[in-house]
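Sequence in, structure out.
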Amino acid sequence: MTAKETVYISIGSNLGKRKINLQKAVFHIDKTLGRVSLLSPLYDAPAWGFESDDFLNACIKLETELSPEKCLEGLMEIERNMGRERLDSKGYQSRIIDLDIIYYGSQIINHKTLTIPHPRMEERKFVLKPLADIAPQFYHPLLNKDSRNLLQQCRDKSTPNKISGKLYQNRTALFTSLEFITIEGNIGAGKTSLATRISDDFNAKLILERFAENPFLPSFYKDQSRYAFPLEMSFLADRYQQFTDDTNQFDLFKSFMISDYDIFKSLIFAKVTLQKEEYELYRKIFNFMYKEVRKPKIYVYLYQTTERLLEQIKNRGRDYEQGIEGEYLERINRGYLDFLKTYPKENQLIIDVSKLDFVHQEKDYEYILEEIENFAISQLN
């Protein structure tokens, strides 16, 4: 069995969404090169050796079985996949991502394409500051000084500034930090399928709406005016009890919670289906209950066109749904969008999935995960 080696890698970005760039690089490193076991805080620092926008920098600790050469190849592949082009011209350039091996264990390597320890690292505070956070007593094998001493003696006049937020070693860790995610959408949008897949892939407690158990639902689709109020009251009572029970009982063996509904949908559907006097009474009861329920860190709304919703409702073949009309779905959709206008922007994410098939197409599922990931990094971190 190949022995694992400890590798320290400096990561930086000064183009585009810098924090997202760094986080994506960490995810790729953890997935393809080994296990990321430590991550430094994030530091904002001026470009070193040329005039440009400031860099966002960090340092990570990697446990890998790869050789130094294979590790370097993997890092350069990640850079290429993220859009970086290494130019032959001399001098420094701005870059979307920069991944450099600082130490590979205590090895000393001096090849044409690879020098370890990284040359001139002791002159750069943007490298030494985050390195000292995660490897303060690691000794430079040539200079015989640890990271703290190198930082103290560094003559670099720049001052890296620690910023808020953090990096996560993998996507599961990022989602775990969110604690609670809600996937919402119109009838037939695919919210249950998506919530279930995310739950399976990232060890989340799954909270599903028990809509099929409502005894008024088949009758409602046949005679909406007659059964609307008992249907909505029944939904509200059931959702409140279930939602409160499920979200207050955290599963110690699960990383976070994900639901395929938010209790606020009760008010959205009620506004569409109830008469004015019925709705006013319903809203008073709802407002009292809604104050008590747990709110998600991210509310994801899956937007689908009415035509696509009708197609998916038909394909899943639930008899009592086949009479749903497009106009009803459009009113529900408007209700959701009106609700989101009042919802905190830092907690809501709308994803247009009208042209996606995230159930059968892996690339479409990955696209949605990246949308949630990017939103979490930029808005909530």
